[in-house]
């Protein structure tokens, strides 16, 4: 069932509440963007589904953006195209309208994954790109120890790699995307070497999973992490991550080729 909030948010997250300061913490990371740029190849027209504020949209191609949340559409930069109000399961475009299509950090919010992927495949002549996280690999993050409730939410919401593969067809590549130490796109694992950032409420709100964690569990996370950072406990267990250039976690780029 499609759940749309007052601002037009789709899926299970109310971006009218949690998306207010989204762009302060979620910027397209150049290292991750290069994976997408390479996978787009020579595509000249691109559809961005669940486009949000426009992260990872290429600026050197003709981009059509679709985003159901009014609060997220309002945060798009002036140089980006105006996003259309719509959802993945019912794309308002004719068959084979685009050279390529993309969806970044959004499939976990679609009420009907199979229908959304089928729609992307229908309107796309070439490759369909999905940037998401493999729920089976979320345990790699130190958050699995400090915030098991949040990781449980992530594991429940993110679709399996198998389900995405099945939705895109027979010719699919799944590419692991290492996360850089200074990642400016603040999803769950982006702060693998900068734990202090997750003590900021804004950083947590910019990752929708936190909005599904009970407030007492969030308070326990903040209290324990604060204590362990002050006492040097976090660094004793995970301190090597502070200088580790990349973290190979759950981030994946799934490429469905025509």
Question: What's the quick description here?
Answer:
By secondary structure, the protein is of the alpha/beta class. The chain has helices at 15-18, 22-25, 30-40, 70-73, 113-123, 143-146, 148-157, 161-168, 201-205, 215-231, 233-238; strands spanning 45-49, 62-66, 100-104, 128-133, 172-176, 179-180, 246-247, 251-256. It has a single domain (15-256), classed as 3-Layer(aba) Sandwich (Rossmann fold), CATH 3.40.50.150.
Strand and helix layout:
Layout: H1 15-18, H2 22-25, H3 30-40, E1 45-49, E2 62-66, H4 70-73, E3 100-104, H5 113-123, E4 128-133, H6 143-146, H7 148-157, H8 161-168, E5 172-176, E6 179-180, H9 201-205, H10 215-231, H11 233-238, E7 246-247, E8 251-256
Parallel strand pairs: 1-2, 1-3, 3-4
Antiparallel strand pairs: 4-8, 5-8, 6-7
Indicate the percent of residues in helices. Answer: 25-40%
CATH architecture group name: 3-Layer(aba) Sandwich
The structure class reads alpha/beta
CATH topology: Rossmann fold
* SSE sequence, one letter per element: HHHEEHEHEHHHEEHHHEE
The end-to-end distance, rounded to whole angstroms, is 29 Å
**Which residues sit in consecutive blocks of at least 5 with pLDDT less than 50?**
1-6
Number of domains: 1
Strand line-up in the sheet with most strands: 2-1-3-4-8-5
Please compute the radius of gyration using only Cα atoms.
18 Å
Discrete helix count? 11
Give the strand tally: 8
CATH homologous superfamily heading: Vaccinia Virus protein VP39
What would CATH call the class?
A: Alpha Beta
What is the 3D shape?
Answer: elongated
Strand content: 5-15%
The biggest beta sheet, please?
A: 6 strands, mixed
Mean pLDDT: 92
Pfam families: Methyltransf_11
GO molecular function, one term: S-adenosylmethionine-dependent methyltransferase activity
InterPro entries: Methyltransf_11, SAM-dependent_MTases_sf
Domain Methyltransferase type: 47-125
């Amino acid at each position: 069932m499609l759940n749309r909030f007052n601002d037009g948010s789709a899926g299970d997250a109310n971006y009218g509440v949690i998306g207010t300061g989204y762009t302060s913490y979620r910027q397209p990371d150049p290292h991750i963007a290069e994976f997408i740029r390479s996978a787009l190849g020579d595509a000249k027209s691109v559809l961005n589904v669940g486009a949000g504020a426009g992260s990872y949209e290429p600026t050197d191609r003709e981009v059509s953006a679709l985003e159901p949340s009014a609060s997220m559409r309002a945060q798009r930069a002036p140089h980006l195209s105006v996003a259309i109000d719509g959802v993945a399961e019912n794309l308002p475009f004719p068959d084979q309208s685009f050279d390529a299509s993309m969806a970044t950090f959004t499939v976990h919010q679609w009420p009907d994954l199979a229908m959304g992927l089928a729609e992307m495949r229908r309107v796309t002549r070439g490759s369909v790109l999905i940037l998401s996280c493999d729920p089976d690999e979320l345990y790699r993050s130190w958050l699995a120890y400090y915030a098991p409730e949040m990781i449980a939410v992530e594991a429940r919401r993110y679709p399996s790699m198998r389900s995405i593969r099945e939705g895109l067809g027979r010719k699919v590549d799944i590419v692991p995307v290492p996360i850089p130490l200074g990642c400016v796109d603040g999803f769950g694992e982006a702060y693998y070497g900068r734990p202090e950032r997750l003590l900021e409420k804004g950083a947590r709100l910019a990752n929708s999973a936190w909005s599904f964690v009970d407030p007492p569990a969030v308070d326990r996370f903040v209290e324990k992490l604060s204590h362990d950072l002050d006492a040097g406990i976090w660094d004793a267990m995970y301190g090597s991550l502070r200088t580790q250039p990349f973290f190979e976690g759950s981030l994946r780029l799934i490429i469905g080729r025509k």
